[in-house]
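Below: protein 1.
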Amino acid sequence: MQASIATATLVGVDAVPVEVQADVSSGLPVFGIVGLADAAVQEARDRVRAALRSSGYEFPNARVIVNLAPAPLRKHGTGFDLPIALAVLCATGQLPRSAFADVNAVGELGLDGTVRAVPGMLAHAVAASGQQRALLGPADAAGVVAAVPDLHYRPVSSIARVRMGLPDVESGADTASIPACGVEVDLADIAGHQCAKRCLEIAATGGHNMLFVGPPGSGKSMLAKALCGLLPPLSPAERLEAALVHSVAGRDPLPCLAGVRPFRAPHHSCTIAGLVGGGTPPIPGEISLAHTGVLFLDELPEFGPGALQALRQPIEEGAVTLVRANGAIRYPARVTVVAAMNPCPCGYAGDPQRACGCTPGAISKYNGRIGGPLYDRMDMSVRVDRIDPALLIGTEISSDPSSEARDRVLRARDFARTRGHGEVRRHLDAPARALLETAARRSSLSGRAVTRMLRVARTIADLAEDPTIGEEHIAEALGYRTWEAQ
């Protein structure tokens, strides 16, 4: 007696189809699972046996072999519990095979037969929708998979309820109708720092990376948190993309589905795998969890050198590619990077109110931890000094709220879509070209640094709704490189 149930295993953010084949034959009682299953899948034998018996089913006293096809593909996770149990029940005739002909099943089983959600439910839903198949899974995941269009979801709370028939719930909720949460930090609540606020507006318009340099407590972290409030609302496709990464990582995808831009601020002790992804089985790192949002790297020089260098390629390409012996895994990583650091080990180099006690050698060594290649990828680097206490404790703060700044960002993005495209350098007028060339030679800027500065100038011109990059736009872009790596 044989039966098969369709399911999938996660590879990156994709759910790759897997067929769970069960064979029940006479012989010594044994329950074996083959097909490159990891420890979590192998442990399904005990969970499935206990769940079936506690749910009123009969576990066969025979030779039971479960094959996960294709055999060369590694399978991992507890989501195979439910399809393995269904395959055994269909092979023994306790459930009709026809009921699962067009169904993908995924879910973890408790010893009492309850069906629980597993990481990557959203990826399984996307895969089932693409195959035009229904998805059978835990009832508590119905709210998450509802965002996937053209999906028929069949939720079950326990495997005992499967014998009563499979309910059918149409998914495909309009994620754009879900209200997004409010802004965490509003620009109107930040006193001073007009230059830094202008940089945030430019970064939100053009997706530029930034580096804030200043003494402790000057407001660098608060400025970084305000950036998400300036970014345009997520489109339905972007909401699903971001939620997919969080779902695969085992995190709550509902904030992303509600339109909240991800903001990730890993501690500087974060490992390479924690930043870019990895592990066994591989999961997305912080840069992928910040996809479509902001990655904030506070105390930048305190990160490990290997971790900082591992960020270079993902920042440039907008994706992370992890190459392993059994294949390559790709995670999306289209983020805006905001980094912050002190100007020296004590934090007070250049501070007009407090003297710095660091030697020139210590300052040079501290700043050198970043590395020129990573610094080149920072489009803007500005000094953020402490503000006057009188301004900080004043009754009114003279600053536009985030809503007004976001309106300017939206208008600039609309203008960028309507103006002529092509190579950015063709938008330069003669005085702007001469100024950029002189500055590049004087500061010995790399080709990447010149290109990124040119893109910043293009964004500044978009904010002014000017189709041509003028000398004033280049001059402002040059002003946002007030700190150079030592």
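Below: protein 2.
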Amino acid sequence: MEKLLLLLVEPLVKDIKKIKIEKEREENRIKYILQIPKGDIAKVIGKSGKMIKAINSLLKLRAIKENMYASCELQEV
């Protein structure tokens, strides 16, 4: 699922190497924390949060296939 996150975020940021992904796991729940540079965070959030909501939706759909629950949170670096 980390590859999916990078695939979705890659076109929105200038340098994909500056993005860090942390993973917190509890039983069948996974929470991904994306650390994104200050200049790119607005693009990832999108207008009215539509982009990050779409990313979360796709991540949740992928997690369902594995009988998991996944979510994504952003942090500014």
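The chain has three helices and three strands.
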